[in-house]
Amino acid sequence: MSLNKIANKLSPSILSADFSQLGNNIKELENAGADELHIDVMDGTFVPSISFGMPLISSIRKITSMPFDVHLMVNEPGRYIEDFAKCGADNITIHAECCTHLNRVLTQIKELGIRASVALNPATSLNVLDYVLNYVDMVLIMTVNPGFGGQQYIEESTEKIKTLRERLNILGKDIDIQVDGGINDTTLPIVLDAGANVVVAGTSVFNGSIKENVKKIKSVLK
Ligand code: DX5
Ligand code: ZN
Q1: pLDDT band at 4 (very low <50, low <70, confident <90, very high)
Q2: Beta-carbon count within 10 A of 31 CB
Q3: Which one is the CATH code of 9-221: 3.20.20.70, 3.20.20.140, 3.40.50.1010, 3.30.565.10?
Q4: What are the backbone angles phi and psi of residue 145, rounded to the nearest 5°?
Q5: Region 111-119: what's the mean pLDDT?
Q6: Is there an atom of ligand 1 within 6 Å of 88 CB?
Q7: 40 part of the active site
Q8: Is pLDDT at 85 greater than 60 in this prediction?
Q9: Cβ within 8 Å of residue 163, ≥6 positions away
Q10: Nearest atom in ligand 1 to 147's CA
Q11: Which ligand has the minimum distance to the alpha carbon of residue 15?
Q12: How far is Cα 129 from Cα 186, in angstroms, rounded to an integer?
């Protein structure tokens, strides 16, 4: 059971949006009470797929005041931090697996005045966080292998979330734990109970009525 008192948030992933209706979809999310937008940037190298980049982020920045949570699934993300900050990112998440100088890039993000977060793939140990926790606002525990929406939650993630929340509590650190991948009616209570407080959801937000789905998830997060 988590001891954390930090706020629960819903971060819908626009990867599952209808891109021909992206502006409208974002307005619906905002009106329904989504807390922020999760924006998945994929480079076709770190992950198999390619999604979208700076021009898309800059244009949606003009139509919403929701915070932008940018998840970079990109090799050596340090090359692009300034670009994504300029596009309007409020948080930038980088993967520990593809960032040679993790400390340097986290510092680079913080120096730009935005939130810095580290993502871990399902097979990556929590130990990579040991010497960077002072620079981190959020840890993203990937609950699927990154690269695609609509995958199944990986069971071992639950223990990993629990262990991380326990370690953070012992250290007295109010760091957000975000989960991403396969979050639905069944897995949502499991991740919350384990100690996650920021929930990314793609399929379970965009499949059907955005308004109803956001309201339903938010009612569980209260
Ligand atoms: C996967 C992405 C996720 C994805 C989640 O690599 O990081 O954000 O959009 O999609 P669902 O909620 O459908 O698993
Ligand atoms: Zn993501």
Answers
A1: very low
A2: 11
A3: 3.20.20.70
A4: -75, 130
A5: 98
A6: no
A7: yes
A8: yes
A9: 126
A10: 6
A11: 1
A12: 29
DSSP state of 7: P
Please tell me the total number of residues recorded for the chain in this structure.
Answer: 222
Cβ-contact 54, 81 below 8 angstroms: no
Could you read off the pLDDT of 127-179 as tens digits, one per residue? Answer: 999 999 999 999 999 999 999 999 999 999 999 999 999 999 999 999 999 99
Answer yes or no: are the C-beta atoms of 168 and 178 closer than 8 Å. Answer: no
- Tell me, what DSSP letter sits at residue 68? E
Q: What percent of the chain has pLDDT over 70?
A: 98
Rounded to 5 degrees, φ, ψ at 149 are -80, 170
Distance between alpha carbon 130 and the CA centroid of its chain, in Å?
20
What pTM, to 2 d.p., does this model score?
Answer: 0.97
- Beta-bridge mates of residue 200: 11, 180
Arithmetic mean of pLDDT over the chain = 97
Ligand nearest to the CA of 183: 1
Pocket test for ligand 1, best of 187, 203, 213, 217 (most atoms within 8 A of CB): 203
Active-site annotation holder among 40, 43, 69, 176: 40
Q: What span, in angstroms and rounded, lies between the C-alpha atoms of 160 and 125?
A: 9
The 3-class SS string of 173-208 reads CCCEEEEECCCCCCHHHHHHHHCCCEEEECHHHHCC
Q: Are 91 and 137 spatial neighbours (Cβ–Cβ below 8 Å)?
A: yes
